[in-house]
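Thread: NAP complex, take 2
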Amino acid sequence: MPSPRILILGATGGLGRALFRHFSPRYSTTIWGRADMDFEKPEIIPERLAAQDFDVLLNAAGMTSPDACEVHPEKAGLANVTAPKVIAECCEARGARMIHFSTDYVFSGQQYEPWREEDETAPINVYGRTKREGELAVLRACPSALVARVSWLFGPDKPSHPDNVIQRALQTDELSAVADKVSVPTSNTDIAVWIERLIDDHAGLGGVMHFCNSGRASWHSWAEAALEIAHRLGLPVKTTQVKPIKLDSLTQFKAQRPLMTVMSHAKLQNLLGGAIRNWHDALEDYLVEKYHPK
Ligand SMILES: NC(=O)c1ccc[n+]([C@@H]2O[C@H](COP(=O)([O-])OP(=O)(O)OC[C@H]3O[C@@H](n4cnc5c(N)ncnc54)[C@H](OP(=O)(O)O)[C@@H]3O)[C@@H](O)[C@H]2O)c1
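Output below.
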């Protein structure tokens, strides 16, 4: 069987870039950004997609800032619901496989146990609500689609929490981070590897599935882990200690954030047939590669 032609949406995003970095050496891979297909103009989508050859579409584009979504709910609706729905209709019509990325923020955050795919969703902000509506719209329009929920992404393609914390710690020893909000930091690089396995070995797999590393962390413990690794690697960070603060002490957010969105990845782990590594190991690999590449 010839390898599938892959179209990735999200050319300037952390996950989109990671997918492109992973797939482009081995597959015929195209990546599009907003300039190629603007989700705020869903009417252009069918014509744009009809002009492109692809067998698998990975949608890593969307409006991802909870605060921006809260302030611009109509734009969030176009980017996270309407455009993915139209894309799913196009994939269904041409028999292409669609993998659509979603979020742990579809959950309320009011639970201690990891959320399973079947658990009830109850998003508490516009971002989460539009992402959940997008999941449903995609699966209605293209029942064979896979909705891959991910959480707290990091990796070499775009700075995220650990990079920002290390940068701050190079300047100051006064750092604080929220300790009462937990999820699973997840490597974009690992996601790309898992997605390849699914494309190659599980062509018929659809529905919702959680894609995250093992373990759990708060923004606080994630920050301290990054600083400890950076210190061990010899970076001149001024501290490895971060002051724990509570989410409700932060006043700058426009959107409410869910407190506990750790997702169970038992389904993915079964499918891959081996243990999924802990986020800490993935973070260590990422930082070693970033600061001490071989
Ligand atoms: N980052 C996380 O921690 C996290 C957590 C949970 C779930 N997710 C989900 O994972 C997926 C990928 O996230 P990410 O972190 O890679 O996001 P990201 O870095 O914010 O990238 C989002 C991408 O979507 C594009 N985009 C936004 N609005 C668009 C529009 N109107 N038309 C076309 N493209 C548009 C952006 O382009 P521009 O640069 O032009 O805006 C960018 O390429 C998303 O579905 C997100 O909801 C992410």
